């Protein structure tokens, strides 16, 4: 029971933190909860499908299927986050001045929300399919009963979800003036974390060179296995022992998104009115 | 899109041609066999992990920076290194108590 609680907590935490950030960043948007729930449901349904196809996915592309699949999901999610941040740089000021104005722009708001709902779905897809496989293994392993597996899983899911909600609740308390900077900053780091992870998968499949393994080692300071290490790994892409190419992907993502935000930013005050 | 895919495939086959040292590991009764693997330092190595159990396992290592799901009865390839000499523990995330091992680069 404890085993299933811990693993489900770990996986749920990662997805819940991502959902927490996205829920905070989309506060005040048209039909936000509908889109978030759509993303969550799509992610859960997708998890079961991916979990049941694990063996088949792994065999694709001469055994590199799982890595390409994961890298693809991470890359897609990072692209959507990048788009969100650039879009926010353009519309954030309007949103800050008049929260309603943006809400009324339904088409633009819906397009934006559907992109973020996709990020939610992709985050759940990755963590959820692993969780489903793990729980399935526990059940067929015969050492635990359905009740203890589901009980442990429910506890893990609950604690993980609470952590994500905690992050969200903390975020919405940030004053409006700093709110956009805070959420865009976190989303920026999240996107960089995702491309860095994608690079790691491509090195694992021998598609990309590692450049250096590892480039540095800070596991004496903060281990990736620790709770804080996991937390920072999910939110900001912390790696105690990153390969060189991960650092290249991480910093390139930061630079590209920041450049995009600067280029598309609406300059105050005269051009802010559309 | 098609060209990209073709490019990717040729890249993959190129990688397959470059003969890296291949090291078999079995997972049996939620344990790695052998539990300790010696590999040459400074060289890329391909681990081929065969999960002979009826349950899925996830090969994971913080030190090697690797993570791979292995479905029951299937083999998974994991490229590691080139490593500096040292001990790099790995474990099966789904059976952390018993599934433990280490790569020793020398």
Q: If you had to describe this structure to a student in words, what would you say it looks like?
A:
The complex is a heterodimer of chains A (274) and B (106). Chain A has 274 residues and is mainly alpha-helical. Chain A has one domain. Chain A is 79% helix and 0% strand. Chain A contains 10 helices and no strands. In chain A, helix 1 (2-25) runs parallel beside helix 9 (227-236) and helix 4 runs parallel beside helix 10 (244-264). The mean pLDDT of chain A is 89. Chain B has a 5-stranded mixed beta sheet, with no helix packed on it. The mean pLDDT of chain B is 88. The A-B interface holds A 3, 7, 54-55, 58-59, 61-64, 66-67, 130, 133-134, 136-138, 140-141, 200, 203-207, 210, 213-214, 219, 223-225, 239-243 and B 8-9, 11-13, 15-16, 20, 44, 46, 54-58, 62-63, 65-83, 93-94, 96.
| Strands of chain A, count | 0
Low-confidence stretches of chain A: none
Sheet having the most strands of chain A: none
For the largest beta-sheet of chain B, the strand count, sense and barrel status come to: 5 strands, mixed
> Helix fraction of chain A?
over 70%
**Total number of helices of chain A:** 10
Number of E-state strands of chain B: 9
Query: Tally the helices of chain B: what do you get?
Result: 1
What is the average of the pLDDT values of chain A?
89
User: Biggest interface and its residues per chain?
Assistant: A-B, 38 and 39 residues
**Spatial separation of the terminal alpha carbons of chain B:** 43 Å
Strand order of the largest sheet of chain B: 3-9-8-5-6
* Shape type of chain B: globular
Helix content of chain B: 10-25%
Oligomer: heterodimer
Tell me, what is the CATH class of chain B?
A: Mainly Beta
Provide the structure class of chain A: mainly alpha
């Amino acid at each position: 029971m404890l085993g299933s609680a811990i693993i489900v907590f770990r996986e749920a935490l990662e997805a819940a933190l991502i959902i927490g950030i996205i829920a905070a960043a989309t506060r005040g948007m048209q039909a936000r909860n509908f889109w978030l729930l759509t993303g969550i449901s799509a992610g859960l349904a997708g998890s079961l499908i991916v979990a049941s196809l694990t063996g088949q996915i792994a065999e694709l592309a001469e055994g590199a299927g799982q890595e390409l699949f994961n890298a693809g999901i991470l890359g897609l999610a990072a692209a959507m986050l990048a788009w969100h941040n650039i879009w926010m740089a353009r519309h954030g000021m309007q949103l800050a001045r008049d929260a309603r104005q943006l809400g009324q722009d339904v088409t633009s708001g819906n397009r934006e929300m559907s992109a973020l709902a996709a990020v939610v779905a992709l985050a759940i897809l990755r963590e959820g399919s692993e969780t489903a496989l793990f729980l399935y293994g526990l059940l067929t392993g015969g050492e635990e009963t359905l009740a203890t597996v589901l009980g442990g899983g429910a506890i893990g899911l609950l604690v993980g979800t609470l952590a994500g909600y905690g992050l969200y609740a903390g975020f919405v308390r940030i004053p409006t003036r700093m709110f956009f900077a805070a959420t865009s900053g976190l989303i920026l780091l999240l996107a960089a974390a995702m491309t860095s992870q994608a690079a790691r998968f491509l090195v694992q499949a021998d598609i990309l060179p590692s450049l250096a393994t590892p480039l540095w080692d800070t596991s004496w300071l903060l281990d990736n296995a620790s709770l804080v290490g996991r937390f920072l790994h999910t939110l900001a892409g912390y790696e105690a022992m990153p390969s060189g190419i991960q650092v290249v992907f991480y910093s390139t993502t930061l630079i590209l998104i920041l450049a995009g935000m600067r280029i598309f930013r609406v300059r105050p005050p005269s051009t802010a009115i559309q | 899109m098609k060209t990209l895919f073709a490019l990717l495939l040729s890249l993959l086959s190129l990688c397959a041609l470059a003969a890296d040292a291949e090291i078999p590991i079995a997972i049996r009764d939620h344990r790695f066999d052998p539990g300790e693997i010696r590999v040459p330092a400074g060289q890329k190595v391909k681990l081929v992990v065969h999960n002979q159990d009826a349950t899925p396992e996830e090969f994971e290592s913080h030190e090697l920076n690797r993570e791979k799901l292995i479905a029951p009865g299937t083999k998974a390839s994991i490229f590691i290194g080139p490593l500096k000499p040292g001990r790099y523990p790995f474990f099966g995330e789904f059976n952390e108590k018993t599934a433990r091992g280490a790569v020793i680069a020398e």
